[in-house]
Amino acid sequence: MSEDAQWKRTPLIIYWPRADRNIDCYYSLNDNALMSVEDASFMPKLKSIFFHETSCRGGVDSRQACAVESAARANPDWEVYLLFNAPVSSVMHRKSCLVKLLQYPNVRLARIHADSFSRESAVQQIVRRDWRRSRYPVEHSADIMRMLTLHRWGGISLDLDMLVVKSFNNLTQNWMVKTSSFDLGTGVMRLSKDEVGQNLTTEIIQEIYSTYDKKQWSAFGAKAIERVLKRRCPDLHTASSGDCQGLSIYSRELFYPIGLSRANSLVREWPLMQLKEEPYTYHLWNLLTKMFTVHPKSPYAMMASKLCPEIYGTYGDAFGV
């Protein structure tokens, strides 16, 4: 058995430390094995799903890898992109759980160079200067990269703590999701390259620039989107679902069926909630659940065994650690 075949069969199990706020890696050109999104050959199709890893780890943990695998399995006719702000080394590329993800023919990895990626956009100044003084640079980067990506190529954006249950094919071309009666989420959304999607991403990016506050955790992610939509469709703010000038707003039950208040039940020994309708995704609420071990009889573990079997099988008892 060749060395590469060995790592594909049994990749390294890496226990990642908590990501810190240092984003110097964004500007590093060293030890990177991934193609750049600026390469001429990087041409995402209209049916593309994007994940962003904006820490400086240069890899993903088991929970993040599970999210990517679940999207690839549920949407085999979509291209699934895992985009890194940090360089990813050749060792990480060849020997970590990334090799399991790359066994799916629709999974792609690429590197974003934040400075060049944001060039000539309204948020270029934030990327070049303001990020370094931010209290939450990794989170702010995710919000900005998500919107720049959708503006450039169109597609679906997913957070790395979302589990995908079924295909997105029967949904509309442009949509967002409520997480409650009053709040929109950024964990999953689709904005296309059509007029509706382009106008929205342009307006949201401008809103991010105009309201950027380096001290606030979520002031310009979901909140920026909410302000834009409230100006467009003020009556939609209190509705559970609806339409806003060509943008579909879906109810939380289809994408966030287990709410924030019950987040801990996902990782503890607990029966999975019986739902009236099978959702498209589950949100794992990483901000609240990341400090807990995933119980093998928890809803999360049971879903992972079905939705990301390669990653779950690779990690076994170490899944979610």
From TrEMBL:
Keyword terms of this UniProt record: Glycosyltransferase, Golgi apparatus, Membrane, Transferase
Domain Alpha 1,4-glycosyltransferase span(s) in chain numbering: 195-313
GO cellular component: Golgi membrane
GO BP term, pick one: glycosphingolipid biosynthetic process
Subcellular location, principal: Golgi
Compartments where found: Golgi apparatus membrane
The organism's place on the tree of life at top rank: Eukaryota
Membrane topology value: Single-pass type II membrane protein
Keyword set includes Membrane: yes
Alphabetized GO MF terms: hexosyltransferase activity
Family per similarity comment: Belongs to the glycosyltransferase 32 family.
Protein name: Alpha 1,4-glycosyltransferase domain-containing protein
Annotated organism of origin: Heliothis virescens
Lineage start: Eukaryota, Metazoa, Ecdysozoa, Arthropoda, Hexapoda
